Amino acid sequence: MSLVVQKYGGSSLSSPQRIKEVTKRIIRAKKRWEKLVVVVSAMGKTTDKLLKLALQLNPNPPERELDMLLSSGEVISSALLSISLCSLGEKSIAFTGSQVGIITDTLHTKAHIQRIEVKRVSEELDRGKIVVMAGFQGVTPEDAITTLGRGGSDITAVAVAAALKADLCEIYTDVKGVYTADPSIIPEARKLKHISYEEMLELAGSGAKVIHSRAVEIASKYRIPLYICSSFSEEEGTRIG
User: How far apart are CA 241 and CA 239, in angstroms?
Assistant: First the structure.
Protein backbone atom coordinates (compact mmCIF):
# COMPACT_ATOMS: atom_id res chain seq x y z
CA MET A 1 0.00 0.00 0.00
CA SER A 2 1.74 3.19 -1.20
CA LEU A 3 1.35 6.43 0.74
CA VAL A 4 2.87 9.86 0.12
CA VAL A 5 2.77 13.07 2.15
CA GLN A 6 2.99 16.33 0.21
CA LYS A 7 3.62 19.77 1.67
CA TYR A 8 2.81 23.04 -0.10
CA GLY A 9 4.25 26.35 1.05
CA GLY A 10 2.56 29.73 1.21
CA SER A 11 3.77 30.92 -2.21
CA SER A 12 2.22 27.81 -3.79
CA LEU A 13 -1.17 28.76 -2.29
CA SER A 14 -1.01 32.55 -2.58
CA SER A 15 -4.20 33.02 -4.64
CA PRO A 16 -7.32 31.13 -5.78
CA GLN A 17 -5.60 30.51 -9.12
CA ARG A 18 -2.53 29.04 -7.43
CA ILE A 19 -4.77 26.83 -5.28
CA LYS A 20 -6.44 25.57 -8.47
CA GLU A 21 -3.02 24.74 -9.95
CA VAL A 22 -2.00 22.87 -6.80
CA THR A 23 -5.34 21.03 -6.90
CA LYS A 24 -4.52 19.71 -10.39
CA ARG A 25 -1.07 18.60 -9.24
CA ILE A 26 -2.57 16.74 -6.28
CA ILE A 27 -5.12 14.98 -8.48
CA ARG A 28 -2.31 13.80 -10.77
CA ALA A 29 -0.41 12.53 -7.73
CA LYS A 30 -3.49 10.64 -6.50
CA LYS A 31 -3.37 8.58 -9.69
CA ARG A 32 0.20 7.47 -8.84
CA TRP A 33 -0.25 6.87 -5.11
CA GLU A 34 -2.93 4.86 -3.36
CA LYS A 35 -3.07 7.19 -0.35
CA LEU A 36 -2.30 10.89 -0.20
CA VAL A 37 -1.93 13.36 2.68
CA VAL A 38 -1.38 17.05 1.94
CA VAL A 39 0.05 19.47 4.53
CA VAL A 40 -0.35 23.20 3.84
CA SER A 41 1.09 26.50 4.99
CA ALA A 42 -0.89 29.74 5.21
CA MET A 43 -1.56 31.62 1.97
CA GLY A 44 1.19 34.01 0.90
CA LYS A 45 2.01 36.59 3.59
CA THR A 46 -0.99 35.71 5.79
CA THR A 47 1.04 34.91 8.91
CA ASP A 48 2.92 38.23 8.68
CA LYS A 49 -0.36 40.12 8.25
CA LEU A 50 -1.93 38.42 11.26
CA LEU A 51 1.12 39.18 13.39
CA LYS A 52 1.03 42.81 12.30
CA LEU A 53 -2.63 43.05 13.32
CA ALA A 54 -1.85 41.64 16.76
CA LEU A 55 1.03 44.07 17.29
CA GLN A 56 -1.23 47.00 16.38
CA LEU A 57 -3.42 46.06 19.33
CA ASN A 58 -0.76 44.95 21.77
CA PRO A 59 3.03 45.36 21.36
CA ASN A 60 3.51 42.34 23.62
CA PRO A 61 0.64 39.94 22.82
CA PRO A 62 0.10 36.88 25.06
CA GLU A 63 1.72 33.91 23.33
CA ARG A 64 -1.26 31.62 23.92
CA GLU A 65 -3.61 34.02 22.09
CA LEU A 66 -0.97 34.68 19.44
CA ASP A 67 -0.84 30.96 18.65
CA MET A 68 -4.63 30.88 18.29
CA LEU A 69 -4.44 33.79 15.86
CA LEU A 70 -1.49 32.63 13.75
CA SER A 71 -2.77 29.05 13.42
CA SER A 72 -5.87 30.32 11.60
CA GLY A 73 -3.89 30.98 8.41
CA GLU A 74 -3.17 27.29 7.84
CA VAL A 75 -6.76 26.37 8.70
CA ILE A 76 -7.97 28.69 5.92
CA SER A 77 -5.55 27.13 3.41
CA SER A 78 -6.53 23.56 4.27
CA ALA A 79 -10.26 24.28 3.98
CA LEU A 80 -9.90 26.12 0.67
CA LEU A 81 -7.73 23.40 -0.86
CA SER A 82 -10.15 20.67 0.22
CA ILE A 83 -13.05 22.69 -1.21
CA SER A 84 -11.15 23.00 -4.49
CA LEU A 85 -10.47 19.25 -4.62
CA CYS A 86 -14.15 18.49 -4.00
CA SER A 87 -15.13 20.87 -6.83
CA LEU A 88 -13.32 18.56 -9.26
CA GLY A 89 -15.00 15.42 -7.95
CA GLU A 90 -12.32 14.24 -5.52
CA LYS A 91 -13.16 12.95 -2.06
CA SER A 92 -11.30 15.15 0.41
CA ILE A 93 -11.43 16.21 4.05
CA ALA A 94 -9.61 19.06 5.82
CA PHE A 95 -8.25 18.85 9.37
CA THR A 96 -6.71 21.25 11.83
CA GLY A 97 -3.65 20.13 13.79
CA SER A 98 -5.76 19.43 16.86
CA GLN A 99 -8.31 17.40 14.87
CA VAL A 100 -5.50 15.23 13.53
CA GLY A 101 -4.10 14.73 17.01
CA ILE A 102 -0.74 16.51 16.75
CA ILE A 103 0.15 16.69 20.44
CA THR A 104 2.87 19.16 21.43
CA ASP A 105 4.55 20.45 24.55
CA THR A 106 3.35 23.72 26.10
CA LEU A 107 6.01 26.01 24.61
CA HIS A 108 3.83 28.54 22.75
CA THR A 109 5.06 29.97 19.40
CA LYS A 110 7.85 27.35 19.17
CA ALA A 111 6.32 24.11 20.37
CA HIS A 112 7.77 20.65 19.75
CA ILE A 113 5.68 17.69 18.61
CA GLN A 114 5.45 14.98 21.27
CA ARG A 115 3.30 12.48 19.38
CA ILE A 116 0.79 12.20 16.54
CA GLU A 117 -2.40 10.18 16.86
CA VAL A 118 -2.90 9.03 13.27
CA LYS A 119 -6.05 6.93 13.77
CA ARG A 120 -8.44 9.53 12.34
CA VAL A 121 -6.22 10.26 9.34
CA SER A 122 -5.79 6.54 8.63
CA GLU A 123 -9.55 6.00 8.74
CA GLU A 124 -10.17 8.75 6.19
CA LEU A 125 -7.39 7.46 3.93
CA ASP A 126 -8.98 3.99 4.06
CA ARG A 127 -12.22 5.61 2.84
CA GLY A 128 -10.35 6.83 -0.24
CA LYS A 129 -10.19 10.48 0.75
CA ILE A 130 -7.36 12.93 0.20
CA VAL A 131 -6.54 14.27 3.67
CA VAL A 132 -5.60 17.95 3.75
CA MET A 133 -3.96 19.08 6.99
CA ALA A 134 -3.15 22.48 8.43
CA GLY A 135 0.59 22.57 9.06
CA PHE A 136 2.56 24.60 11.62
CA GLN A 137 0.25 23.79 14.52
CA GLY A 138 -0.72 21.36 17.21
CA VAL A 139 -2.41 21.16 20.57
CA THR A 140 -1.22 20.62 24.14
CA PRO A 141 -2.61 17.82 26.34
CA GLU A 142 -4.72 20.58 27.93
CA ASP A 143 -6.23 21.48 24.50
CA ALA A 144 -4.38 24.78 24.04
CA ILE A 145 -3.49 25.54 20.42
CA THR A 146 0.24 25.82 19.73
CA THR A 147 2.41 26.71 16.74
CA LEU A 148 5.75 25.15 15.84
CA GLY A 149 7.73 28.23 14.84
CA ARG A 150 9.64 28.87 11.62
CA GLY A 151 9.49 25.95 9.22
CA GLY A 152 6.59 24.49 11.17
CA SER A 153 4.75 23.15 8.13
CA ASP A 154 7.89 21.31 6.95
CA ILE A 155 8.17 19.78 10.41
CA THR A 156 4.48 18.81 10.39
CA ALA A 157 4.75 17.12 7.00
CA VAL A 158 7.81 15.04 7.86
CA ALA A 159 6.51 14.11 11.32
CA VAL A 160 3.18 12.99 9.84
CA ALA A 161 5.05 11.01 7.17
CA ALA A 162 7.02 9.28 9.94
CA ALA A 163 3.89 8.56 12.00
CA LEU A 164 2.08 7.09 8.98
CA LYS A 165 5.21 5.24 7.77
CA ALA A 166 4.85 6.96 4.40
CA ASP A 167 6.88 5.90 1.39
CA LEU A 168 7.88 9.49 0.56
CA CYS A 169 7.51 13.08 1.75
CA GLU A 170 7.44 15.70 -1.03
CA ILE A 171 8.13 19.36 -0.18
CA TYR A 172 6.71 21.73 -2.80
CA THR A 173 8.04 25.26 -2.68
CA ASP A 174 9.00 28.17 -4.97
CA VAL A 175 12.50 26.83 -5.71
CA LYS A 176 13.38 23.96 -8.05
CA GLY A 177 15.43 21.99 -5.55
CA VAL A 178 18.58 22.20 -3.45
CA TYR A 179 21.49 24.10 -5.00
CA THR A 180 25.21 24.23 -4.21
CA ALA A 181 24.67 27.93 -3.34
CA ASP A 182 21.89 30.50 -3.48
CA PRO A 183 21.22 30.78 -7.25
CA SER A 184 19.87 34.32 -6.83
CA ILE A 185 23.34 35.35 -5.59
CA ILE A 186 25.59 32.82 -7.37
CA PRO A 187 24.29 32.35 -10.95
CA GLU A 188 26.58 29.37 -11.58
CA ALA A 189 25.17 27.44 -8.60
CA ARG A 190 24.25 23.86 -9.54
CA LYS A 191 21.05 22.08 -8.60
CA LEU A 192 21.72 18.76 -6.87
CA LYS A 193 19.84 15.63 -7.94
CA HIS A 194 20.56 13.88 -4.65
CA ILE A 195 21.93 14.84 -1.26
CA SER A 196 22.28 12.93 2.02
CA TYR A 197 20.46 13.85 5.23
CA GLU A 198 23.78 14.83 6.80
CA GLU A 199 24.73 17.11 3.91
CA MET A 200 21.28 18.74 3.95
CA LEU A 201 21.59 19.37 7.69
CA GLU A 202 24.92 21.10 7.08
CA LEU A 203 23.37 23.32 4.39
CA ALA A 204 20.37 24.13 6.59
CA GLY A 205 22.72 24.96 9.46
CA SER A 206 24.62 27.29 7.14
CA GLY A 207 21.49 29.27 6.31
CA ALA A 208 19.80 27.37 3.47
CA LYS A 209 16.07 27.98 3.90
CA VAL A 210 14.72 25.40 1.46
CA ILE A 211 13.71 23.08 4.34
CA HIS A 212 13.92 23.44 8.12
CA SER A 213 16.72 21.51 9.83
CA ARG A 214 14.30 19.98 12.37
CA ALA A 215 12.35 18.46 9.49
CA VAL A 216 15.55 16.92 8.07
CA GLU A 217 16.45 15.56 11.52
CA ILE A 218 13.08 13.80 11.78
CA ALA A 219 13.40 12.40 8.26
CA SER A 220 16.87 11.09 9.04
CA LYS A 221 15.79 9.50 12.32
CA TYR A 222 12.84 7.66 10.75
CA ARG A 223 14.47 7.15 7.31
CA ILE A 224 11.75 9.02 5.40
CA PRO A 225 12.89 9.85 1.84
CA LEU A 226 12.43 13.55 1.02
CA TYR A 227 11.91 15.20 -2.36
CA ILE A 228 12.15 18.98 -2.75
CA CYS A 229 10.85 20.62 -5.92
CA SER A 230 8.92 23.59 -7.25
CA SER A 231 5.13 23.75 -7.46
CA PHE A 232 5.59 26.25 -10.31
CA SER A 233 7.51 23.85 -12.57
CA GLU A 234 7.58 20.25 -13.75
CA GLU A 235 11.38 20.24 -13.58
CA GLU A 236 12.99 17.46 -11.54
CA GLY A 237 13.90 18.46 -7.97
CA THR A 238 16.32 17.14 -5.35
CA ARG A 239 16.05 13.86 -3.44
CA ILE A 240 17.26 13.75 0.16
CA GLY A 241 18.03 10.43 1.79
Answer: 7
